[in-house]
Task: inverse folding
C-alpha cells in the first residue's frame, strides 16, 4: 500500500478523538485487535488501525447516573489539567461507542445475548449510544477502559491533512463476543500479536502509520494482557506530540527523548524516531529496534 507524505500545514485545531487497543491472551501470547480502514476513507484509507474515532457532542452529554464513575473522576484519570469533566467523560463514551460501531464489541461484563442486536437497532433508529444503552437499562462500564497515551498530531501531519488529539485506551476483550466489522468504515478485523503485526508491516502485508507502529512497539514488550492493564493502572497516560522534520531529504518524525525533540526525557523504551524510507516508516536499527 502506497503512503503519500503530507507537506501541508493544518491551521485548524486537532479534533478530539478516542482509540482503543483491545487486548486478549492467546496460546501465541498477547494479541491486539486491528481493523482495516475502508480504502475510500478520507482518513488513513486502507491502513490497519485500532478501533476509534472522533468525539461526538452527544458523548459529552452523558449523565453521571449512566456511568460507572463520575465525569469528574473520568476526566481526572486522563491527567489533563485543562480538561473539563463533560469532555473527559465523553472521551470514555466515545471509546466505548466506536469500539462497538467499528468491530461489534461492547466492553461490558456479563452481557445478555440479546443486547448487541438491540443496541444496533436503537443506533440505527437514531438514538445516541449513551441513550441507547439507557434504553436497554445498562450502565456504561467505563472501568473497562484504562488510559494509555495521548497523541496530538503536529501542525504538519505526516500521513493526513487532518489533526487529531487522540486519547488511546487499553481494554480487555469481552468474553463471549465475536468481532463483527461494519463493512462501511472498516472492511477487515484481525487479532495479531504485536510482533506479528510489526513483522507483517515490515513485509508489506499490512499498512500501519506511526501512532500504531509505536504503540505496537510498546505492547510487544508486555507478555500478557494483564501486564498491559497493570502498566496502564500504574501511571498517567503518556503525552506524545510527534515533531516532524526533513532529514537528508526525507520525512523524519521524532518523539520525546530524541535529540531533535523539544522534550528531552523519553516516555518509552521504544525507538524515538521514524524515518520514511522504502515506502514505510522505519526506526534506526530497523525491525529489530521495534521488536525490542
Result:
Amino acid at each position: 500500500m502506497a503512503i503519500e507524505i503530507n507537506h501541508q500545514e493544518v491551521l485548524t485545531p486537532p479534533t478530539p478523538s478516542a482509540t482503543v487497543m483491545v487486548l486478549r491472551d492467546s496460546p501465541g501470547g498477547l494479541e491486539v485487535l486491528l481493523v482495516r480502514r475502508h480504502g475510500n476513507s478520507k482518513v488513513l484509507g486502507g491502513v490497519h488501525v485500532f478501533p476509534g474515532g472522533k468525539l461526538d457532542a452527544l458523548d459529552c452529554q452523558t449523565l453521571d447516573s449512566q456511568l460507572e464513575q463520575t465525569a469528574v473522576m473520568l476526566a481526572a484519570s486522563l491527567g489533563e489539567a485543562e480538561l473539563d469533566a463533560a469532555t473527559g467523560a465523553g472521551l470514555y463514551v466515545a471509546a466505548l461507542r466506536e469500539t462497538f460501531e467499528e468491530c461489534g464489541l461492547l466492553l461490558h461484563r456479563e452481557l445478555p445475548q440479546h443486547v448487541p442486536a438491540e443496541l444496533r437497532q436503537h443506533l440505527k433508529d437514531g438514538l445516541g449510544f449513551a441513550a441507547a444503552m439507557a434504553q436497554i437499562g445498562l450502565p456504561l462500564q467505563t472501568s473497562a477502559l484504562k488510559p494509555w497515551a495521548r497523541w496530538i498530531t503536529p501542525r504538519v501531519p505526516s500521513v493526513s491533512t487532518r489533526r487529531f488529539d487522540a486519547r488511546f485506551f487499553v481494554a480487555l476483550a469481552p468474553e463471549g463476543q465475536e468481532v463483527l466489522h461494519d463493512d462501511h468504515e472498516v472492511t477487515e478485523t484481525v487479532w495479531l500479536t504485536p510482533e506479528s503485526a510489526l513483522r507483517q508491516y515490515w513485509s508489506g502485508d499490512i499498512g500501519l502509520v506511526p501512532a500504531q507502529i509505536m504503540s505496537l512497539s510498546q505492547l510487544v514488550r508486555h507478555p500478557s494482557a494483564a501486564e498491559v492493564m497493570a502498566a496502564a493502572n500504574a501511571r498517567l497516560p503518556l503525552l506524545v506530540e510527534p515533531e516532524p522534520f526533513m532529514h537528508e531529504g526525507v520525512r523524519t518524525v521524532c518523539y520525546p527523548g530524541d535529540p531533535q525533540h523539544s522534550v528531552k526525557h523519553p516516555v518509552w523504551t521504544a525507538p524515538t524516531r521514524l524515518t520514511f524510507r522504502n515506502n514505510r516508516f522505519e526506526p534506526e536499527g530497523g525491525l529489530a529496534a521495534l521488536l525490542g
The chain is about 25% helix and 25% strand. The first helix runs from residue 71 to 77. The chain has one domain: 15-237.
